[in-house]
Design a protein that fits this description.
CATH topology of the largest domain: Spore Coat Polysaccharide Biosynthesis Protein SpsA, Chain A
Number of domains: 5
CATH superfamily of the largest domain: Spore Coat Polysaccharide Biosynthesis Protein SpsA, Chain A
Strand content: 25-35%
Shape: rod-shaped
Helix content: 10-25%
Structural class: alpha/beta
Number of strands: 35
Largest sheet: 8 strands, mixed
């Protein structure tokens, strides 16, 4: 059998085309006299043929191979690629010398030791994933004994043995948690088991550590003896779980929580400004596997970014934003009273989670502090200042038309969050005084319907209380149906004068006072507060639980308005004339008002017109009742009992 000279074979180079390579090998023996010839791989000695059966003959090329490396090829002189190949795998047997790296302490998986090329030393290296150095580390090397070694064959990488024996420890002083990195990504600790040389240690984030020193949370130790040291892997924190129904914005979750309280679940809820539901909605939570309970961490809202070009002040941002809109950016612009430019200036914005657009939330102004010493009213700031003056404490004074003091009174101010650069008085402040409600109170007055019609002519929106027993109870009901801070009361027997109107604007410091207009008496000509229109502070009546004999004077401060509002037409029949005179004169007789005696004398001695006799009798009887009841409030209050008055009248005049 002809064997081609190995020197000639070594000159045939591989060019990535196996067919062409074999054609070139075939040419080496094509002109030989022998019908068949063998080509031996130059990496092997011809003695390798002793381990294969070269007697096989065929038209195709017979290829003996060790794994993926050809050992020898047998050609016929007439072979061509169209005849094909027959590959025969051979198990070569060599007397092999094997050496393992003593520094690895057998921490390597069993290596499949085999020799591909007897003339080369075969070397296996440690997988880079387990290699803490920049250089390659050999694991084992093998060669054929007593054979000339001409080079080295790199057999690739092998992984450590006992990979699953690394020990993961969790701090026993902490609960079983799902741990995350600073970006709230869950940490896969298994990936760190590959480093067989070091102990890996994580400490808990300072947000959860109240100690003066670092506290370890998790560590992974190799099972090999004498690890090379500790790798400090940084800080970890419990996984923060977010409500998937709420857009993910940068929630302020920086509460300090000591790690020993992580045995409880911690839950943050959505701020009411962003919650349109009746029940609380959770935003975020930290969950312990063996929870001892739940700790409510309060309400949170998305962070608001403020324009850094505007001096820092507190802003009046009270808009209700439903949480499902937090995918949008929300932008507030500066109120035009404080913007000296033609273009809009943004003041504040909330960045959307995955912004799908921008929502314009309108204009806002700095939060205004109002003088607590003046009534809480609808003040109007008409005169503004440019926003760059927000460095100053800005003050608005109460307009002189709204008070009677000799000195200026501040009404409102804007104070910067930093130390003010000074004080600037911007101007005066106005007030929007609402048009007060009007309530007509009637109880069996014969002329009530005509008087009610006249009230409606002057105030079409007037309200009415009809048939409520008891003067106090009727006025309480009037306060309940009124909707404004103050409201007018018109009695059922009051005939409003043509020149009277419900457009009075009280001094703002008098809005907690009862205002009483003058009334004209049709029987004796007196003009004073008896039966006049009244303006009550609504809350004063709502809060009242009792009163004295006269409701107008019994609730607190009284302000007299020196203008006739109506004629008190009480002389509509005998009983109402007598009753009205009796009640008023009883109050006058029990009063310590210096003007009471003169008015009482007129009531008891002068009367004209229809039912003048009943007026005089009622006045005189009331005078006696008031004088005798001056120190008996309970007896004096009987004048407000309609039925008691009816019985007293019947004693004089019969049924």
């Amino acid at each position: 059998m002809i064997i081609i000279n190995p020197e000639l074979v070594s000159k045939i180079t591989w060019e990535q085309d196996p067919d062409h390579f074999d054609v070139r090998l075939h040419r080496l023996g094509r002109y030989d006299v022998s019908e068949e010839f063998i080509v031996v791989n130059p990496l092997y000695d011809e003695s390798i043929l002793e381990q294969i059966d070269t007697s096989l003959s065929a038209e195709h090329c017979v290829v003996w191979a060790n794994r993926d490396i050809w050992i020898a090829k047998k050609f016929t002189r007439s072979w061509q690629p169209a005849n094909g190949w027959q590959v025969i795998q051979c198990e070569l047997k060599f007397d092999i010398a094997v050496e393992c790296n003593p520094d690895l302490n057998n921490f390597v998986q069993d290596v499949d030791i085999h020799i591909d090329y007897p003339s080369l030393e075969h070397v296996w290296y440690l997988d880079p994933a387990y290699n803490p150095t920049d250089s390659k580390i050999w694991v084992c090397r093998a060669s054929v004994k007593n054979n000339k070694i001409t080079g080295t064959r790199d057999m690739g990488y092998v992984a450590p043995r006992n990979l699953g024996d690394c020990i993961i420890e969790f701090n026993p002083d902490m609960p079983e948690l799902t741990w995350a990195d600073e970006n709230n990504n869950i940490i896969d600790f298994d990936q760190f088991k590959q480093d067989i040389h070091y102990t890996h240690q994580w400490v808990i984030d300072s947000q959860f550590n109240f100690q003066d020193y670092a506290v370890w949370a998790v560590r992974i130790s190799p099972s090999r003896p004498n690890p090379l040291g500790i790798k400090h892997m940084g800080t970890i924190r419990p996984l923060m779980r977010f409500n998937p129904d709420i857009p993910r914005v940068a929630w302020p979750l920086d509460n300090k929580i000591p790690y020993y309280e992580l045995f409880y679940d911690h839950v943050w809820y959505l701020d009411k400004q962003f919650n349109t539901e009746a029940d609380d909605i959770w935003v975020a939570r930290i969950v312990s596997e063996d929870s001892l309970g739940v700790k409510n961490m309060g309400y949170i809202a998305p962070p608001i970014e403020f324009n850094p070009a505007i001096p820092k002040v507190a802003w009046a941002i009270n808009d209700q934003i439903p949480y499902y809109d937090l995918n949008y950016d929300h932008v507030w612009h500066l109120d035009t009273r404080f913007n000296p430019l033609d273009d809009k200036i943004w003041v504040a914005r909330i960045a959307g989670a995955n912004s799908i657009g921008v929502k314009n939330m309108g204009y806002i102004m700095p939060r205004v502090e109002f003088n607590p010493a003046i009534p809480d009213l609808n003040y109007v700031i008409e005169q503004g200042v440019p926003y760059y003056d927000f460095d100053y404490k800005l003050m608005w004074m109460l307009d002189n038309s709204l008070h009677t003091d000799d000195h200026a009174i501040w009404a409102a101010r804007i104070t910067p969050l930093a130390e003010p650069a000074g004080v600037k008085v911007v101007g005066n402040i106005g007030i929007e005084i609402e048009k007060f409600d009007v309530v007509f109170i009637s109880y069996k007055e014969p002329n009530a319907e005509a008087n009610w019609y006249r009230v409606q002519e002057k105030c079409p929106t007037a309200k009415r209380v009809r048939g409520v027993t008891g003067i106090f109870e009727a006025h309480k009901r009037a306060a309940e149906i009124a909707e404004t801070a103050m409201f007018y009361v018109v009695d059922g027997d009051a005939e409003l004068l043509d020149n009277f109107s419900f457009n009075f604007k009280p001094n703002i410091f008098d809005m907690d006072c009862v205002h009483l207009w003058t009334s004209r008496n049709p029987v004796n000509g007196l003009e004073y507060g008896y039966g006049g229109v009244k303006l009550f502070p609504r809350q004063l009546l709502l809060d009242a639980t009792t009163w004295n004999v006269d409701l107008t004077t019994g609730l607190g401060k009284l302000k007299l308005v020196d203008k006739v509002s109506n004629m008190t037409a009480f002389n509509t029949d005998a009983f109402n004339t007598w009753r009205s005179a009796f009640r008023e004169c009883a109050k006058l007789a029990a009063s310590d008002d210096p003007a009471a005696e003169e008015r009482l004398t007129t009531w008891c001695n002068h009367a004209v017109g229809e039912f003048k006799f009943e007026a005089l009798c009622g006045a005189q009887a009331g005078r006696m009742h008031g004088s005798s009841s001056q120190f008996d409030l309970g007896r004096l209050k009987a004048i407000n009992d309609y039925e008691w008055m009816k019985n007293e009248f019947n004693k004089f005049y019969g049924q």
